[in-house]
Amino acid sequence: MTEVDQKTDEKKVVPQDPETVEKELEEIGFVAPPDGGYGWAIVVSSFLLNMVVDGVIFTVGKILQPAWVKGFNISEASAAMTMSILSGFYFFVGPVASALCNVFGCRQVALAGSVIAAVGFLLSIAAPNIYVLYLTFGLVAGAGFGMMYLPAIVIISQYFAKKRSLATGIAVCGSGIGTTVFAMLNDVVWEFVKQDWQQFLVYTATVTISGFAAALLLRPLKASQDQIEKVAEIVENYEENKEKVPESPSLSKHNTPFLSSLELHTAGKHANGVHRNGSVKSIIDAVAKDVEELNRPLARMDIFYTGSTTNIAARSRTGTMNREEAAEHLKNLRDNLKEDTPLQYLSKLDLNVAEDGTIQHVEEKSVMRDIGAALKNLLDKQLLASPSFLLLAFSGTLTLCCFYVPFIYLGNHLDKIEGLTVAEKSFTVSLIGVLNIIARIGCGYIADRPEVSALHVNNIALIMAGLATMTVPFYTAYWQFLVFCVPFSIGVACFAALRSVIVLELIGLEKMSNAFGILLTFMGVGAVVGSPMAAAMKDITGNFDTSFYVMGALMAISGAMCIPLGALRKWELARATKSDAKAEVELQKLTEAEQK
């Protein structure tokens, strides 16, 4: 008899308490990120999806908006609203897309998103006025892009843990590559279609539907048959021996949802006696559904964290510490030598647990109810009542106000320089794309260095990017525009890449999923408001000088206002601690009074 067989026999004989069995079931049923293998195909798919989505969003506006102004005889602000709705709904749909990923899986959502976005562009061809474009180009295509983007990020967290920072860094480089390639390719296509914006939309839809092929690679990560059979065997052993375990009065089924669910969903197998005869095969189908539920995206607290999981403990809430406290925190973690595992970040909060403490299967759930739960997370009272989190969220709104403006309107300032070719004008946007790639790689390096404050890096980068944007109206030479691309690209990259790291530093991992949805909503507001505001200033003043002054100032303010964020969060936590201590004292007094 082998050592493994002996251990298995021991487990059959020795009865275990429910919480111990629950932990064992989770350890076996949880599908650990492989950190490689097919995961690299997932990275390629995510890279291509980012390339398509951001490549289109960042580059088509500078071509289509002037065409709509001329074709529909409308103001710059009215035309800009179309692109802003597109980019806004790209963010707004995030919470809904995450709920859909949880129900249907990342591949199905990304496939549907590519079709929806392409259909939105094709419907826009027949638009008789700009208001129809708001619906088809903006809302429909924007929602489709959001459904393509979010699964591409979420699924990387399922496939990677220790190497997640590297995998995410490679994937999001697709954004920079897409911006670089399409900034140059769009001009060629624009001339090829004889500057017909409707034919150009056919090309845009074709590029978008290519994301369908990339999304096909997003194969879900599933538990092996061996894992499922082991879970079934443990449940069988527990059922045979549970009567020997003394009941704990403090034990609730809500403490063991996985075990309780398995017991309920395999109950029919016990009734006919098949399970009692030791046939593990008879409960495989029922067990497989519960194991699938355990491994859904939102069951992981770290699903929206883009850094390596080995640094989560080191990063968590360090934003509320001063330099000495953070250094001591890191030293203690290193001395502890305890290695983080992805299973540590499994969250039962997002499992759909019924009133009886069991997990509801997907077929037993309403899709609208799941979406409703995601939207309910946007009303997280604890986060919305947190001054530090609201400050972080509002800073995101201000950042997004400026985010797209240089991509769309930088060419208007380049028109001041005589003799520039179309290719030279487009090269500035392409350069932003290239520099964005380099900066994102640097951000990945920062994310894996807990001793470096992601918040401080983000603040400095945004302030520099904002100040640089404010100087654009003063440029008189082409090289000055090229220099501008450096700080602006770094600011954009740091904001996009370090957001989840900053949330971890300030809020911690427990609320990250809720925080992510709220932040996307605040950023969506900025994306909708920013470009039309810049265009409206042009309509009033006759040029884009004021637009760049104001939008640059907003970006610089968004960085500056986060400088006291760490201290504010620390004060907030200290106040909460005092409040809890006071409540505990009052409760103790009431208890003593009742005893008397």
From the coordinates shown, what is the CATH architecture of the domain at 380-595? Up-down Bundle
What's the average pLDDT?
Answer: 78
Low-confidence stretches: 249-254, 270-279, 319-323, 333-339
Main β-sheet description = none
Helix and strand pattern: HHHHHHHHHHHHHHHHHHHHHHHHHH
CATH H-tier superfamily of the domain at 380-595: MFS general substrate transporter like domains
Shape: globular
**β-strand number:** 0
CATH class division of the domain at 380-595: Mainly Alpha
User: What is the distance, rounded to the nearest whole angstrom, between the alpha carbons of the first and last residues?
Assistant: 64 Å
- Quickly give the structural class: mainly alpha
Strand content: under 5%
Question: Approximately how much helix is present in the residues?
Answer: over 70%
Radius of gyration using CA atoms only? 27 Å
Organism: Caenorhabditis latens
Pfam family, one: MFS_1
Transmembrane segments: 38-58, 78-97, 109-127, 133-154, 166-185, 197-218, 389-409, 429-447, 454-475, 481-504, 516-536, 548-568
GO molecular function, one term: monocarboxylic acid transmembrane transporter activity
